Amino acid sequence: MNSVPIHQIGVLTGREIIGDALIKLPFLRALRAAWPEAKVHWITTQDKTAYAGPLLKTVRPFLDEIHETPSWLKLPNDPETPAFDLLIDTRGRWKLALEARLSLPHKVFIAPAFRYLFSDKRPSLLTPRPKRMIDRLLQTVELAAGYLPDVTERLPVSPELLEKARRILPKGPVYVGFAVGAGNAIKKWPLENFEKVAQHQARLEYVPVFLLGPQEMDLYDRLFQAVPEAIFPLQAYDVWGTDKPQVDQTLAIAACLDVALTNDSGTSHMLGAVDCPLVSLFGPTSASKLAPKVTLGRVLCAQDFGSESMEVIPINVALDTLNQVILLQKRA
Q1: Is the pLDDT reported for residue 76 higher than 80?
Q2: Spatial separation of the C-alpha atoms in residues 124 and 211, rounded to whole Å
Q3: What are the b/e assignments for 114-143, b being 16+ CB within 10 Å?
Q4: Whose CA is closest to 122, among 99, 81, 150, 88?
Q5: Nearest alpha-carbon partner for 189 in 269, 272, 271, 281
Q6: Which domains, ranges and CATH numbers included, belong to the chain?
Q7: pTM for this structure?
Q8: Residue 199 CA to chain centroid, in angstroms?
Q9: Which pLDDT belongs to residue 152?
């Protein structure tokens, strides 16, 4: 089975909102690294994917075709159905995996559902199930390819955008990023805590950098007054040439940061995509499953302080952890 040439790869998924899509970026990069010449088809079975929307430019080097709920999924023997050399079902449901195995043409089938019961390749029964979602996805690549490609390096950033980011954040100072937003209020550390940490960083002569997307713009005036030393790079509209922040702009800014303090959010995974050193804050969500995959990172969980509420994560612990990461980054 290792000798099967891989020219056409299909990946079955339910759907991706932007947070899910960002978490999966290392998986896309691993697929491309393992099969650089293959044509990769991304196939949703439930709804749309952010890869066809806000992340289209970001994933263009990794995905050749994006099929959002294509009609041929429901039509047996449809001539439009691609013939896959490798078909990976990421959905984690055994009934769906069995249906895909029986209905879609393929040579090698990989699906983690039900301990890889319907897969042509599977890990040893003694191999523990990876806790993080991204590691479970990477395991499918390792099984199919026979090795796990190294995807720890930074996601490439457009040189043009990086040059613009460096106009806002020129080399020299230590830049400490703050991603204060999240898709759900229960995942947000109190804003006043971020302010106090940023004020402390400014007193150390580090430069606080707030990453505010469209949904956080109502915080701009407050943060500007609370931390006058801070920079708001996504609001440098004259540099970017637009007043609508884009994912690629955030990636370029992230590549210039020395470290960032983040909630569990889509922005944290944008930072992780370029391997920005991170201190990630988690409350009710699972850090073991969802923490960004970075070379230098620390995770602070509310559960370790007796509650699922983000408020219980102490400011002094966040400060100490952030400063430790800055010190490690300086030594690197």
Answers
A1: no
A2: 43
A3: eebebbbbbbeeeeeebebbbbbbbbbbbb
A4: 88
A5: 281
A6: 8-145 (3.40.50.2000), 159-331 (3.40.50.2000)
A7: 0.86
A8: 28
A9: 62
